[in-house]
Design a protein that fits this description.
By secondary structure, the chain is mainly β. The chain is 10% helix and 38% strand. The protein has three domains: 84 residues, Immunoglobulins (Immunoglobulin-like, Sandwich), CATH 2.60.40; 102 residues, Immunoglobulin-like; 157 residues, no CATH class. 22% of the residues are buried. Keywords: Membrane, Transmembrane, Transmembrane helix. This is Hydrogenase expression protein.
Length: 466
């Protein structure tokens, strides 16, 4: 584009040209300065070079050029215009992971990236040679904004189950179809495992054959066993004289024979079996004897399993199938693991010196979570802590642990976390400071940060919602 300039003043002046606005980085002016005599006209050329990226939004984009006279810098002129960028489409798809394993199903995810500068609408379908698999795709249709990505969860189910034998590879293809464009195929492999390994089937077969053989031999060669107990008793009875019977008044009652308890009596001081009122039975005897009704049975109490964030979120998911929930608990120095809380309830302790060293998080309905702890660094030279390694993406209903829950672990001053679908929000409290404002992050690869980057202070409480 050409820009024509006329010097309407009465002195020779030099003019400087500077592109301004959102598309200024893509604009060049040649020449950048122009010297004009009074009443003369000059021309400069504007060249626009928008990149082939989502940043170059399709449609009209306003631009401007600031013209500054050297002799009269206060007389600045800014002519404006519009640059129309034509749309282009570029889609990339990838299976994560490309190979899945399972006996009855496989669950890969298809990541579809929109690298163009206009919104993309596409449908996803699955196919394979021989129609050996069935496909459950959610969602089957996606709309993706420029520069964003969509994730499609796929469930692959084999039409035939391998009961015995080795695993088999079943190649398949997920196709991304856009209107007026060729399908974009993405190839993957489902590795179907046998329900029982071949060696186990052989073992059961040999074991059954041995059992049948043993039974047949026992039937064919069963020994003839007879007992001489009756004859011996009769012979002994014939050689013994009858004993005189005692008078009826001197015979001891049958109930006076000592009884052998089936189990040793329990300690009456045991809190689990003691009298709930804490006193005796009213007759001066042992309160645990029960009036001679027999020894009490022994009680064995198993240690209950730990209540983690995953057990808490699974309880919510059971009562609210298809709902979105997040549960979490804090490991506090000097206290240990707290009980898990969910959906915006505070975990930790405010107004104290209790430092959070680790967090246990679990989600449901959000396609898993990944996180990264930001911890205090005693050797810091810039007043900041440092990040530790990101956790792997932990599936819904599973425990995700952030930081370290041990005596020598550094205190957490903050952490970053993301989820697979939807939004995640946080409100956090840092020692010696008030509660911060709520911040939120979109689905992966976006994230939300809780706490502070400052070294020497620590995270003391947090609330999370999805």
């Amino acid at each position: 584009m050409r820009l024509r300039l006329r010097n309407t003043g009465d002195v020779v002046d030099e003019y400087r040209f500077e592109p301004v606005g959102d598309i200024a980085p893509w604009t060049t002016v040649e020449p950048q300065t122009l010297r004009l005599y009074p009443g003369t006209t000059g021309t400069v050329e504007l060249t626009f070079s928008p990149p082939r990226t989502p940043d170059a939004t399709a449609g009209p984009n306003p631009f401007a050029v600031r013209i500054t006279p050297t002799e009269h810098p206060e007389a600045v002129t800014v002519p404006e215009g519009n640059l129309t960028i034509t749309p282009f489409t570029e889609v990339r798809a990838e299976l994560v992971p490309p190979t899945v394993k399972g006996r009855f199903r496989g669950r890969p995810r298809l990541a579809v990236d929109n690298l163009g500068n206009t919104k993309v609408t596409a449908s996803v379908s699955g196919s394979d040679n021989g129609d050996q698999l069935s496909y459950d795709l959610h969602p089957s249709n996606v709309q993706i904004e420029p520069g964003r990505a969509a994730f499609v969860k796929a469930t692959l189910k084999p039409r035939k189950i391998i009961w015995f034998g080795s695993k088999e590879q079943r190649p398949y293809t997920l196709a991304v179809q856009r209107s007026g464009a060729k399908p974009l195929p993405v190839e993957g492999t489902y590795l179907q495992r046998g329900f029982l390994p071949r060696w186990l089937a052989t073992f059961f077969g040999v074991l059954m054959a041995l059992g049948i053989t043993f039974v047949m031999l026992w039937i064919a060669y069963k020994p003839n066993i007879s007992s001489g107990a009756t004859e011996k008793v009769a012979e002994a009875g014939s050689t013994l004289a009858p004993a005189p019977s005692a008078p009826a008044s001197r015979q001891p009652p049958l109930s006076s024979a000592p009884e052998t308890p089936a189990m040793p009596p329990q300690d009456p001081t045991d809190g689990a079996d003691a009298d709930p009122k804490g006193g005796d039975d009213g007759d001066g005897g042992d309160g645990g004897s029960g009036g001679g009704k027999g020894a009490p049975a022994a009680t064995v109490t198993a240690k209950p399993p730990a209540d983690t964030a995953a057990t808490a979120v699974r309880r919510l998911a059971k009562n609210d199938p298809g709902g979105r929930h997040i549960c979490y608990r804090a490991f506090v120095a000097g206290e240990g693991w707290q009980k898990p809380v969910c959906d915006g309830t505070m975990s930790g302790r405010t107004g104290s010196d209790a430092k959070i060293k680790a967090l246990n998080v679990a989600t449901t309905g959000v396609d898993g979570s990944a996180a990264n702890a930001f911890v205090n660094d005693p050797q810091s030279t810039d007043g900041k802590g440092h990040y530790v390694k990101w956790t792997a993406i932990v599936a819904d209903g599973k425990d995700n642990y952030i930081g370290r829950a041990d005596k020598d672990a550094p205190s957490m001053s903050g952490f970053a976390i993301n989820i697979g679908t939807g939004r995640i929000c946080q409100v956090s409290s840092v020692w010696s400071r008030a509660w911060g404002a709520q911040t939120c992050g979109d689905q992966r690869p976006a994230l939300v940060f809780a706490g502070t980057l400052d070294n020497g202070v620590w995270l003391e409480a947090v609330k999370l919602t999805v």
